[in-house]
Each structure stands twice: as C-alpha cells, then as structure tokens.
Amino acid sequence: MPGAKPRCLLIGGQFTGNFCARELKKQFYVTVIDAKEYFEYTPGVLRAFVRPAHLDSLTFTLQPVYERKMGVKFIWGEVKELNGDRKTAIVKTMFSNNMDEIGFDYCIICSGCNFGPFKPMGESLWFPTVHEEGRAVSDWKHIDERFLEGRRRHVLEEYHKLQDLNKKKATVLIVGAGFIGVEWATEIEHFFPDVKLTIIDFLPRCLGPLPDSAANYCSEYMNACGIKEFYSCGYDPKNPDFWKKIELPNGADETYVCIGVKASNYFMPKNTLSDKGPGGGGWIHFNKHLQVTVKPSEGGGVWADGSIFAVGDCNYGCIGEPGKWEMPPVPKISYPGEEQAYHACLNVMRLAKNQKNLVKTWWPWGAGMFATSLGPHDACFVAGANENKGSGYMVNWWIPAALQKEIIETTKIDECRDCWIGILIWHFVHHTPVHLFGRAVGLSGFAKWVVIAGKNIDLSECTTAQKGGGMIGDLGWLQPDELKNRFGPALSEAAKNLQPGQWSDLASSEMGIHIFQRIA
Ligand SMILES: Cc1cc2nc3c(=O)[nH]c(=O)nc-3n(C[C@H](O)[C@H](O)[C@H](O)COP(=O)(O)OP(=O)(O)OC[C@H]3O[C@@H](n4cnc5c(N)ncnc54)[C@H](O)[C@@H]3O)c2cc1C
C-alpha cells in the first residue's frame, strides 16, 4: 500500500510501553497489547493499600488514552506466544476463548515482571495478578485484577485486613528491608499506628546496595517510630529460634514478603531466556542494541531477524558476566526502563529507514536515582548510585524529598495519560541532551598549546574556545561518532577511551592542534 507505515507491536502498556507508543506513533502503526485494562503507577501503589482513595489518582483506563488521545491501537489481552520467524504474536484477547494472531514488522517487548519469588509464579500486592498462569495459582483467585474494579476490590480487602490488624494491635513481620520493605513498613506504621512492626533482612543493614547515609536515615526514622529492625537475619519461619531471635516467640499475626522480582516472560521461547538471574532466571537476553538474542550458551546471536527488542523490567538487565561486564546489571526501576525504551525506539526507526548504524544502549544516569518514602511526610533521595555497593549520595531528604516524590508521581502519571504538563516536564529528561549524561562524552576543546582550562584562552584560535562561557571551549555533549564527523578521526581517536576528568594526548585537525578533557 503506497504511503503505508510499518507496524510496530508493543507488548505491555505501562511505563516503557507508554513511552514507546508516544515516541513511535507518528512513524508507525502502533499496537499496544496489555493483559490488564488500566495503567497503574507502581511506585505509588503501596499508599493505595493503606489509603484506598489514592488508587484513583494512580490509575486510568488505557483504551481511551491510547486510542483517543495518542491515536494508536490498544488490545486488551495476553500475549501467549511470540513467533520471531513469522513475526506474529498469538494473543488471547479478553472475552474470547480463541487466539488471535497479530502480525508486525517491529516489536518492542515492554512486559515488565512479577514480584514475590516465593510464590510459584511470583505474586505480590505490588503488581496485579494478570497472567493466566499466575491467576491459576493465585492467593486471590476470587478477584480478577485484569479489571480496574478487580484491582480496587483487592486494595479494599487488604485495607480492611490492615484495619483489623490495627484493632487487634497485631504483630506484622516485613521480610526484606530493601526500598519496598522499608516503604511498606513505614506506610503501615503511619496509617495503622497500633500495628507492631518488625522488619528483617539478611544483609547487615537496610536499603541493600544504597549508600550508608541513606540507610542510616531510614533506620533512624524506623527506630524513632518504633519499627523493630533485625539485620543479618535470614527468614526461617519454620524454625522457632528464628522467631525468638526477632523477639516474636509466638510468630507474627501477618507476614509480608517484600523481596525480589520474578520473570513473567511466559510467551517467549526458552532459548531467549536466561538460565540465571533473580527469582531463578527467565529474563530476556538482549544485546547492546536492545535486540532480543538467544542465550549465550546457544551462541548469543540476534533472535529472529533483529526486529524484536526487549526493554525495562522484562529483560536480563545486564550483558556479560561478573568481572567481564559489557553492561553491568541495571536496576529494575522505571527510569532506566524508559531510557532503554528510547534507545529501542531509535533503533526501530533506524531499521525502518534501512539504516545500519544502530544506537548502543548504556548505563543511564537515572539508574542511580532512588527515592525511598518513609510514610507520607518523609523520604530520602539517592542519586549517583551504580552497581557498586554503597555507591551514590543522599542528595535530598525529609519533607523536600517527600515533596519531590509527590511531584514525580503526579507529573509522571500526567505524562502517561498523554497530558501536556507531564509531557513537557519529562520529554527533556529522556531526550537529548539530558539523557546523554549517562554515557556521552562531554568535551571541552582547546586549541594550540593550551592545556589548562581558561588560563591561556587568548592564545587559542579554536572557535569553541572563543565562544567562552562558563566552560571555556566547551564542545557540549557529543558522542564519539559525532565527534568524528565534526572534527575528524584523530580527535575522536584521542577522545574515545577517556574517562571523565582525563586529558587526551595532543591531536590535530584542520583547525589546529587540540587537547581535550572529558568532563563527564
Ligand atoms: C512497590 C514498588 C515501588 C517501586 N518504586 C519505584 C520508584 O520509586 N522509582 C522507580 O523508578 N521504580 C520503582 N519501581 C519499579 C517500577 O515500577 C518498574 O521498574 C516499572 O514499572 C517497570 O516498567 P515496565 O514498563 O518495564 O513494566 P511494567 O510496569 O511491569 O509493565 C508491564 C506491563 O506489561 C503487561 N504484560 C505483561 N505480560 C504481558 C503479556 N504476556 N501480554 C500482555 N501484556 C503483558 C502487564 O500487564 C503490565 O501492564 C517500583 C516497583 C515496585 C513494585
């Protein structure tokens, strides 16, 4: 058909799927498939269980937003199988017992994951039970969380359970003092102050790999409000000594397990899924272009013809192995997921134009940002964390951090609803130049004999040096390829392997002799 656009299928319509739909809608016929009918802002969902009215502000129905506002197609159904050779997805749509087969030219898998690795298919309060496999073994089979009304009923049930626990002044054990466990304990404490809370973790302190400053801040908060903490303590519910150790000799009236993720990529062929990884593996292997690959033990090559991508929580999160990382594990949080979604969209657009130079993804700066709320009026915000334990800095805390979390929540949901305030705020976070902080090379360039920033600027004949400004000779954010195109191979060679803060050797171009410093 003349003028027909290529078809792009998005599996999952939450953070990453929503991002891709907005990004691709102009150039592709986009179809979004989601197993549930609604968007839910996962980072805010704990508050909904202790204050159910909050659910309304976290959720919206997907169909009107996708079809009427964005102008893409939405299918409410579960993808049961993805066929890479035929480029089709087998979908069980709602209210039908038959399977539909949907064709595509490109596909981005944005299907996220489950939480709660102790349950057979992974199940937790934090993520609705939507997959057929999961619903069959669910602890809340009587509720169908694919419907927003089902989700609301689940939230209300849990709320009433907490109310009863509060009336009884019951004991509650939270297993896992990562950010979800800490947030859940402090939410319960704030809204149900008569519940007696204990939190444990097998690590020596809370908040896992985050910096000591943040862990101490959260510990102090929990201590001040009477939440008992036990660290270096594994969960061993069948052992009476375990209960004695955590000063609950008669056990707890209720236990919430707040640890870990579990893959839910049931629709993918086994040879694309990891044997290892959190929750026993099952994560989608991918390469630096975010294309789905077969597992390394089967050669690690691109799966299908390279037109299928996997982004966000559903993928393996890392490339390589410990000690030999090509890309170290990226935390399963929304910012890096959206960053990957952006890179995958760029690659889909390039493939559609028959371009071969695909974007390589990188560790995004936002992968190091963690906001942990401590009830509604306190929080701490860490930036700059990476894969090393204890890395990052607590840069905001107390009421300002709680406010920051609220602002993020409100504006992010606004963006996902395709409303302009949210779009205006978040667009620039994921697009050039801000998103390049994660990896692009910021270079200040000086010409002719100048080696120290600013000092001998009048000797420089370089146009960038003459521009002046706060960073004299600042070239801005450039990727090595762009550097090569603009200044020639010698400069890009000299700059290529620099780490932030390092200076290059002398390098010449048609404009003269330069020395560079990579500044970020
Ligand atoms: C309690 C909690 C607090 C969090 N707090 C934060 C935070 O403060 N900051 C932060 O950045 N991140 C936070 N996260 C993590 C964040 O929510 C996730 O990283 C993010 O939701 C991942 O987005 P995604 O698009 O990859 O997947 P998801 O949001 O999981 O969306 C996947 C979608 O795919 C659909 N789907 C799955 N399988 C199929 C299928 N077979 N067919 C059709 N549809 C399917 C699902 O229904 C779902 O709607 C938190 C997570 C939890 C649980």
TrEMBL record:
Organism domain of life: Eukaryota
Pfam family, one: Pyr_redox_2
Domain PpiC: 473-520
UniProt cross-references to Gene3D superfamilies, sorted A to Z: 3.10.50.40, 3.50.50.100
One Gene Ontology cellular component annotation held by this UniProt entry: cytoplasm
Keyword check for Flavoprotein: yes
Presence of the UniProt keyword Cell cycle in the record: no
InterPro entries in UniProt: FAD/NAD-bd_sf, FAD/NAD-binding_dom, PPIase_dom_sf, PPIase_PpiC
MF-aspect GO terms: electron-transferring-flavoprotein dehydrogenase activity; flavin adenine dinucleotide binding; peptidyl-prolyl cis-trans isomerase activity
Annotated keywords: FAD, Flavoprotein, Isomerase, Oxidoreductase, Rotamase
PROSITE patterns: PPIC_PPIASE_2 (PS50198)
UniProt family annotation: Belongs to the FAD-dependent oxidoreductase family.
The name this protein goes by in its record: Apoptosis-inducing factor-like B
Originating organism: Symbiodinium microadriaticum
Gene from which this protein is expressed: aifB
